Amino acid sequence: MEHHPWVKEIGSAITVCDRQGVIIEMNDVAINQFNEEGGKALLGSNLLDCHPEPARTKLKELMDQQMVNIYTIEKKGIRKLIYQTPWYQNGQYQGFVEMSVILPEIMPHFKRQS
User: Fold this and answer.
1) What percentage of the chain exceeds 90 in pLDDT?
2) I want to staple 56 with a disulfide (CB 3.0 to 4.6 A). Which of 5, 44, 51, 73 is the partner?
3) Which residues contact 95 (CB under 8 A, 6 or more apart)?
4) Radius of gyration over alpha carbons of the chain, in Å?
5) Global confidence as pTM
6) Looking at the domain 5-102, which fold is it?
């Protein structure tokens, strides 16, 4: 599956799997982020095998129920927003996408009036 050029070099990690959890796409940031785990060699492996329990069970449930999951983590002093969401093609569930966005130490928050 070929992705749009902007996906390849966007500053956030993007990993895509199919309905069974097989990784079918990773952008450059994701490949680098998961270099110690295999990087590009992770393509074709199962995303569920990359997660320890209880995260594996949670991810399987999210995929089965086609639910969105959003949370923040901190690892090695780097804070990230993790956005996991189902993806669809022509209205048919195709799998799951995980985006990992590095958060700055101080991040402005704006409330907009409608």
Assistant:
1) 80
2) 51
3) 16, 17, 18, 19, 20, 21, 24, 63, 86, 87
4) 15
5) 0.88
6) Beta-Lactamase (3.30.450)
